[in-house]
Structures are given as C-alpha cells and as structure tokens.
Predict the structure of Aspartyl protease.
Amino acid sequence: MNIDYRDGLLFTSIEIEYRGKRKVIDSIVIDTGAAESIISPDIVDEIEIYPEEDDEIVTFVGVGDSEHHSFVKKVKTVRVGSFLLKDVELDFGIIDPKGKINGLLGLDILVKVEAVIDLKEFKIL
C-alpha cells in the first residue's frame, strides 16, 4: 500500500464496508501515536453511517489536551492495502474541522495487520 508524504504527515487510503455499502476514504493519516483509529463522520454520510441511540460514545484527548467525542460503530470490513479485517469497531468523530484529514489510522488497526512502515519507499508492507 502506498503512502503519500505531505505537509509533514503520512497519508493513505482505506476502504470500509458498512451494511452492504463500501467507501474508499482518502486523506487518512497514519498515526502511530493514536491508540484508536477514527474516521470523520462527514466523509461516510453516503454509506449512511450516522450516530444512533445505541452507539457507544467515547471521549478522547487530542493535541493540546483538547477533549473530543466520537461514536463507535462496528463495520463489516476495513481494507488497508492488501489487508482485510472483519467486524472492526471504529470511532467516528471530528478530527480536522477544515476537512483536510478524513481520519487517523491508529495502532488498533496497524497492530492487527502487523504493518511495517517503509519510510524509504513510502509503503506499508
């Protein structure tokens, strides 16, 4: 899987499937400092991922100790390059109000796929 290095960050794409609908999400930052992956809810409107009454709400602390909230959904699949994970719980919440970052690919997924990040070739192996 290719990585795009821009603005001092590592960007990639992922694909998620939820209730039979798939979406490729670009501008996902690879963030080894994030324990959990999180996706912007605005980017998944078209596959009908919305907060619902039964969803777990979580609070996390961002840069500068700012407090943020997200909701958790179980998606059928998450594809990271050639890796496919099934029945994955993902957080959905605002990461970048300017909309340049659509999500963070955190250690929860990177560890599951046993990702090796090659910074010479800018690929995830």
